[in-house]
Design goal:
Elements (H helix, E strand, L loop, with lengths): L1 E4 L5 H13 L3 E6 L4 E6 L8 H4 L4 E5 L19 E4 L2 E3 L3 E7 L6 H13 L4 E3 L17 H14 L2 E5 L6 H5 L4 E4 L7 H8 L5 E4 L6 H13 L5 E5 L17 H8 L4 E3 L1 H5 L2 H13 L4 E5 L17 H17 L3 E2 L1
Parallel strand pairs: 7-8, 7-14, 7-15, 8-9, 9-10, 10-11, 11-12, 12-13, 13-14
Antiparallel strand pairs: 1-3, 1-4, 2-3, 5-6
Helix pairs in contact: 3-4, 6-7, 10-11
The structure holds phosphoenolpyruvate (PEP) and manganese (II) ion (MN).
The site of phosphoenolpyruvate (PEP) has 9 residues, from loops.
Length: 339
């Protein structure tokens, strides 16, 4: 249930409403917007009568929400969330933020070259995995903490921020000391222990859509993180499994406007995993921005033919540069600008 308070209502009245909600057994989360205070009341109390709250002084509106997620729903913060991940880099505002880099950190030379390239071409965030969730246990698994150190050094050299994947609750503390944004991969979208652990910290989380997850399941995973108190969640559409085999996954572009309607959380798109082929990445990146995405996550490699993972879907630096040029034209057409 969401309780919208009247504009400019006193702190005392807000507190009274919170106390009443708590006395009914609700867990209350408060959001103070520019004009209104909104209270999210979490808990299932089927016998509860909304009029008991509606009639309290200072209450403008009480909405029972049928969606099973509350904190992630648009009603909780109707103006939309803007999530700051570091100096001058915000998701959900007027700017479209691009995170680019290789699938995985492979070596110092590799990550520094790619960092220089993507920085020069306009990315604000360096992406790369150090702990890789590979389908086969015999595939390259990433460099681990040594990879995170290289990633951080390369990003710092060029003033970029860092996003990298966390796979297990035991890694949260260590990884958050190296990155600005913690990625939950598609395979872990329903790893509830991991989601709970990320709810305990305040570091922003990039939550990828599971490859067979519905939008509702995805938002419930965001709710796991948010119910722990970490509201800094950014969603990432990365393609779902369908009957189609001509692309690695089916990038669900329609999920972007759907999420915008259902949730206040920013959403970005990953056209690299979403298509699995470098020749399809740029068209889908352009489409995602046109559809309202707040950013992009793109695999770029200085030498994709020799990449240790996902080379076929990694753009050459020149291709990435061309795409950025095109995005600078598309963004203003939909009322945005490139960060
Ligand atoms: C990745 O971003 O490198 C990755 C492993 O993505 P996903 O979890 O979407 O497969
Ligand atoms: Mn990859």
């Amino acid at each position: 249930m969401v309780v919208v308070m009247q504009e400019g209502v006193s702190e005392e009245k807000i507190q009274h409403v919170i106390d009443r909600l708590v006395s009914f057994g609700f867990d209350v989360h408060r959001s103070t917007g520019a004009s209104h205070t909104v209270l999210g009341a979490i808990g299932v109390h089927p016998e509860f009568d909304t009029r008991d709250i509606e009639l309290l002084d200072g209450v403008r509106e009480v909405m029972r929400i049928t969606q099973p997620y509350k904190l992630a729903s648009r009603a909780f913060r109707s103006e939309g969330s803007v999530i700051d991940i570091g100096p001058g880099v915000r998701f959900g505002g007027p700017e479209i933020v691009v995170a680019a880099g290789p699938c995985a950190v492979e070596s110092s030379d590799q990550i520094f070259r790619i960092a220089e390239g993507v920085f020069r071409l306009g990315a604000r965030i360096l992406r790369a995995g150090a702990f890789k969730p590979r389908t086969s246990p015999y595939s390259f698994q990433g460099l681990g903490e040594a990879g995170l150190k290289l990633l951080r050094e390369a990003a710092d050299r060029f003033g970029l921020l860092v996003v990298s994947e966390v796979m297990d609750p035991s890694q949260v503390e260590m990884i958050q000391s190296y990155v600005d944004l913690m990625q939950v991969g598609a395979r872990n979208m329903q790893n509830y222990h991991l989601l709970r652990a990320l709810g305990e910290v305040r570091k922003p989380v990039l939550l990828k859509r599971g490859m067979s997850a519905t939008i509702e399941e995805w938002l419930l995973s965001a709710e796991y993180i948010m119910s722990g108190g970490n509201y800094n969640v950014i969603l990432c559409e990365r393609g779902i499994r369908t009957f189609e085999t001509s692309t690695r996954n089916t990038l669900d572009i329609a999920a972007i406007p759907a999420i915008k309607k259902l949730s206040h959380l920013p959403i970005i798109a990953d056209p690299s995993h979403g298509t699995g082929r470098r020749d399809r990445v740029a068209p889908m990146a352009r489409a995602a921005v046109a559809a309202g995405a707040d950013g992009l996550l793109i695999e770029v490699h200085h030498d994709p033919e020799h990449a240790l993972s996902d080379g076929a879907q990694s753009l050459y630096l020149e291709q990435f540069g061309q795409l950025m040029t095109e995005l600078r034209i598309i963004a203003p057409a939909v009322g945005r600008r490139m960060a």
